[in-house]
Amino acid sequence: MEKKEKVIGIMGGTFDPIHNGHLLTAECAAYQYDLDEVIFVPSANPPHKVEKNITDAEDRYTMALLATMSNPKFRVSRMEMERKGLSYTIDTVREFKKLYPTAKIYFITGSDAILEIFTWKEPEELLKQAEFIAATRPGYCLSQLGQKLYDDYRDAIHPLEIPGLAISSTDIRQRIIEGRPIKYQLPETVEMYIKKHNLYR
Ligand code: ATP
Ligand code: MG
């Protein structure tokens, strides 16, 4: 019997830190699109965050490992950490296509990220190379993409309705600075790692 081709979801992000919004998005995408696995790819040097003081990639990678440990479909890749220079999604998609030449590849984002896709490197090529799953995120609406763009890329962008979680890494970092609770916004293992390593203080 012929083996079914693998279907892979790539979940890119800074994950500073990873939280339940990321995990819920990946889980809903995996169910809806029958993904065999979701590979979380922490961005080593995100081009749109160069002026920001982001946490060491090793810490972000470890937190992603802790957060995804219990899900058999979730994996974490060091691909962008091992590549020199800025971390561009087009390079990551190309590298995954080389690694899995027969697989169908989806790139999973929240709707805020997809709305910015035309500021990314080689956006048109990117939309040809991978199909995008754009999950709803409170505060961002895919209709802002504009009807013409949406019509042009209708086959490459798949909206995905998920239960909205108004959680963001920025808000979690701010809460830690101000001593407000972060419990239930991210896995307990990640919360413990943040405490142990005194991150975001
Ligand atoms: P920051 O506030 O530092 O930008 P973030 O919470 O937006 O952090 P990122 O690492 O920037 O997290 O996001 C990685 C991916 O996850 C992006 O595609 C983003 O749209 C998506 N995402 C993040 N949080 C949510 C959420 N609460 N719901 C849906 N998608 C999300
Ligand atoms: Mg973000």
Describe this structure in words.
The protein has 201 residues and is an alpha/beta fold. The protein has one domain (7-167): Rossmann fold. The chain contains 9 helices and 6 strands. The protein has helices spanning 20-32, 57-68, 79-82, 89-99, 111-115, 123-129, 147-152, 169-178, 188-196, and strands spanning 7-13, 37-42, 74-76, 104-110, 131-135, 157-160. It has a 6-stranded parallel sheet with strand order 3-2-1-4-5-6, with helices on both faces. Helix 2 runs antiparallel to helix 9 and helix 4 (89-99) runs parallel beside helix 6. The model has no long low-confidence stretch (mean pLDDT 94). Bound molecules: adenosine-5'-triphosphate and magnesium ion (MG). Adenosine-5'-triphosphate is lined by residues 13-16, 21-22, 25, 109-110, 112-113, 135, 137, 165, 167-170.
